Amino acid sequence: MDADLEHLLFIYALQNAVKHNSAPKSGAVIGTVLGKHPEFRSRVREIGPLAGKVVAKVAAMDGPERKSLLAEIAPELLDELTETREHSRELPALLGAENGVVMRFAPNPSGPLHLGHARASILNDYYVRRYGGRYVLRIEDTDPRRVDPEAYEMVLEDIEWMGLGITDIVYQSDRLDVYYDWCRKLIELGGAYVCVCEAERFRDLKLKKKACPCRDRPVEENLELWQRMLDGEFYEGDATVRVKTDLDHPDPAMRDYSAMRIVNTPIHPRVDATVFPLMNFSVAVDDHLLGITHVIRGKDHIANTGRQRYIFDYFGWKPPVYYHYGRMGISGVVLSTSSMREGIRSGVYTGWDDVHLGTLRAIAR
Ligand SMILES: [Zn+2]
């Protein structure tokens, strides 16, 4: 019997030491043993000295020794430790989220949602549930080339299937006047200009860190050109609004990027317009106007975060807190909407719910 009691005390002392990575505490060990084996409660007097003896023995070992001995003589107690750690694992806290958050899920309506969308949307959903607040679904449909009219409905269906706690829905194509307005303000501030250079010429200058002739045009002339863009006096590619950034920026893609452009074809399925914001402009304006507090998105957006920062700085807006997570790939699963669409068209896949695709429809099926 003594051997049993001593053995129990010994293995729980080991577990206690491994758990806290320090010498075991006699009181805690006795408490655990009596809690799990009430039959020893009648022998409480003997336990003290026995516990003292085993605790001293365990205290004399080092960390790795304790762990390997525990793994050998009572592996289930070691497993218990890792299990507890997994159960209590929680996603990291968000900075400044104590009083609630406003977060967003912002898909393009270019096809149904896939696992990449699920990851982004469920992470955001988790934090809105954790801290309370609003969860904005923002349909980013300002690139007519990336809009599939049928996708609007599919996106909503997929969101319902995931059970996201969306509180607000915003369609960017309903907000073109808002972007036009802020574009004009940015031009007035001297933070943007209308560029009428040929794309190739601008690219050459940009790579040489040189300003194009449009950059220093007076504000009044820029406003006039902007109005002419809106009036349909320019054709696709003939004029674009550029944000003045830093021509010396080490990344050429950050130098004076486009904020507004003309798209004549295809015709947008929801709005009658030819001037559309590019995502970095509309995203910055909307994140501010919708009061987005935290943005969780993939690392592939880090450069965009840098571009959007210029807009926040020009207007003196406080940017949201950004978090970027690593890329995801699942071997053998297609996650690119354009490759999926191509495969469906060419007959490689049977449809959006083909089991080779990473769409939520395929998983549901
Ligand atoms: Zn130019």
Describe this structure in words.
The protein is α/β, with parallel strands linked by helices and 365 residues long. The protein has three domains: 2-87, no CATH class; 101-325, Rossmann fold (3-Layer(aba) Sandwich); 329-365, no CATH class. The protein is 47% helix and 12% strand. It is built from 14 helices and nine strands. Strands 4-5-6-7 form a four-stranded antiparallel sheet. A three-stranded parallel sheet has the order 1-2-3, with helices on one face. Helix 12 links the parallel strand 8 and strand 9. Helix 1 crosses helix 3, helix 1 (2-20) packs across helix 4 and helix 4 crosses helix 5 (75-87). The longest helix has 19 residues, at 2-20. The radius of gyration is 30 Å and the shape is elongated. The two termini are 59 Å apart. The mean pLDDT is 94. It binds zinc ion (ZN). Zinc ion is lined by residues 195-197, 202, 212-214.
Question: What are the salient characteristics of this protein?
Answer:
three-stranded parallel sheet, elongated, 14 helices, alpha/beta, binds zinc ion, 365 residues, Rossmann fold, 9 strands, 3 domains, four-stranded antiparallel sheet
